[in-house]
Structures are given as structure tokens and as C-alpha cells.
Amino acid sequence: MNLFEGCTGKALANGLAWFQEPPEWGFDQDGLTITPAAKTDFFRGYLRAPNDNACLLYIDVTGDFTAVTRARAHLVGFGDAAALTVRASATQWAKLCLERSPIGDVAAVSVVTNPWSDDANNELLDKPECYLRLTRAGDVFAMHYSLDGARWRFVRTFGMVMPPTVMVGVHAQSPFVGGCSAQFDLLTLTHEAVKDFRSGE
After folding, report:
1. H or E segment at 84?
2. Which of 59, 80, 99, 134 is found 20 to 30 A from 109 (Cα to Cα)?
3. Residue 157 burial by CB count (10 A; 0-12/13-18/19+): exposed, middle or buried?
4. pTM score, two decimals?
């Protein structure tokens, strides 16, 4: 099911809701566009003051799931990103990002927080657009990305004891300079996990 079906302008449908609504967003024929405020992010550096003020458009999901979005972004500064996110609380969440690196590259980037955030870059991308996928089987999660929505490349798998019901959705962030924007063409959700986390099949 594409959860964006029925969403128009600033009208949401299918149980979608904002966690920290951004100043600029809306739906049109191309999907959802978000312009996040500057200095917004989800990140909990070890023994540092946390950032937990990014915007997240989410739906509550119970049990196993697979969520997919197609993201395109105008990435201005380091850390600017369009992301697919699962969240239980401020200290327990994970995000798969289409993100700008410190030296200007674009990469698939993953962050897992429990309660501190790691930060791992995956492969570099030629341009800032790709499909992102998050899947859950019990308390094991996996992340994949794809250039065409058919062939999936493994990013990571991890275990985390999360509540049965979690927030799943898309978010955009601009940790430093501002001026970025993110577009999400779709957000699909099925209530089953990917069978093989490593191959992505």
C-alpha cells in the first residue's frame, strides 16, 4: 500500500501524522516535498548533547514490516539528508539516509541509536536519488537501497529490542546550514519482512 495515496496539499491520509512538523512541506502529483529548518537532526553523539528536532512523517506500525520510499534531494551542506526512519523513542531509533558527506559526496548512510548513535557510510551514489528500504523481523532489522527499485543492495542488519508498535516514516534533516529540500515519491508498507536480509530478496 502506498501511504501517500489520498494525501494532497497539506491534507494527510492513511494514518500518517507529523512528529515535529517542518515549516515547509506539501503533497503534489510528484509526492511529498519537505524543506527542513536549519539545525534540525536526529543524532545522539556519545556523551554529547543530543539533537532530536528533525521532522518525521510517520505511521504507527505493529509487528513485522517492510517500508520502501523513493527519495530525491537537493543537498546543500554536510549532513543534509532525506531518510527512512523507524523510531520507538528519543533514545531508540534508526535511519537510512540519502545524505551529503563532509567532503560533498552523496552516499547511503545509516545510523542506529540505542541509546547512542553510530554513523556508517555505505556506497557513494552518482546523484542524490535512490530507493530506501527498512524491514523488521521480530527484533532484527535490515536496511537496503536500490537505484531502480528492483535490485536491492545490502546496507546493514542489526538487532534492537523495540516495542511491538513503532513509528515508521520519512524525514528530512539539515543539521547545519539549511537550504536543502527532500522529495519522496512514495511510501509503501507491507506487514511482512524481507526473507533474506543479506541478499535483499
Report:
1. strand 81-89
2. 59
3. middle
4. 0.97
In angstroms, rounded to a whole number, what is the distance separating the alpha carbons of residues 184 and 188?
11
Q: Which residues pair with 97 in a beta bridge?
A: 83, 109
* Cα Rg of the chain, angstroms: 15
What are 133-163's pLDDT values in tens digits? 999 999 999 999 999 999 999 999 999 999 9
Cα–Cα distance list, 46 to 15, 95, 132 (Å)? 34, 17, 26
Residue whose entry in the numeric block shows the C-alpha cell 545509516:
110
**What is the percent of the chain where pLDDT is above 70?**
100
Q: Using one digit for the tens of pLDDT, what is the confidence trace for 173-200?
A: 999 998 999 999 999 999 999 999 988 8
Domain 17-190 has CATH 3.30.360.10: no
Sheet with 129-137, strands from edge to edge, namely 24-28, 31-35, 181-190, 65-74, 129-137, 140-146, 153-159
